[in-house]
Amino acid sequence: MKILKSILLFGILLLIYFIPALLFKAEPEYYISLAKPAYAPSSVLFGIVWPILYILFSIYIVINLQNKTLSKEMILYFLINYVISFFFNKVFFIDKNLFLSFAVTFCSFISGLFIFITSFKHSKVQFLFILPYILWTLYASTLMTHIYLIH
Fold first, then answer.
1. First to last CA, the chain
2. Which of 64, 129, 136, 139 could form a disulfide with 70, with the two C-beta atoms 3.0–4.6 Å apart?
């Protein structure tokens, strides 16, 4: 029963993470049309990386909820991060606002740092679930800064 509950919770968390993508459809053509630095990845990579990051976040949350080790502080950081990240597709693909896209990306990185630092204090192993998010959002923040400055 505990496994079934964990699988259900994992599925619900993933669904919650994908709500913004369902509400604000990404337009790869817009990203492709932008002038970008040489280190910018193909638009396909974003569709691979983000689901992996959401899976890692969901696993982290499920493990810590099961073990009753998810602090109120950590829940708050995840909620802040989610609310910030929620709007990226809207401001980038729909509004086509590069400054707000940069701001959302950078704030996602900063809120991710709070999650990372708190998780590191809690578990020297479990923080590894958060590390890819930090690396990716740092890269994405750098990329969005460059794209914003080009335009």
1. 54
2. 64
Q: For the chain, what is the mean pLDDT?
A: 95
Q: Which two tokens stand for residue 92?
A: 């980038």
Dist. CA 107–CA 94, nearest whole Å: 19
Please tell me the distance from the alpha carbon of residue 141 to that of residue 145, in angstroms, as a whole number: 6
pLDDT digits (tens, 9 = 90+) for 27-42: 899 999 999 999 999 9
Rounded to 5°, the CA angle 145-79-135 comes to 40
Q: Provide CB contacts within 8 A for 31, sequence distance 6+.
A: 43, 46, 92, 93
- Domain-by-domain residue ranges, the chain? 2-150
CA distance 149 to 71: 39
- What is the dotted CATH code of the domain comprising 2-150? 1.20.1260
Crossing angle (nearest 10°) for helices 98-122 and 72-86: 160
**Angstrom distance (rounded) from CA 19 to CA 33:** 25
Tokens of 4: 């079934």
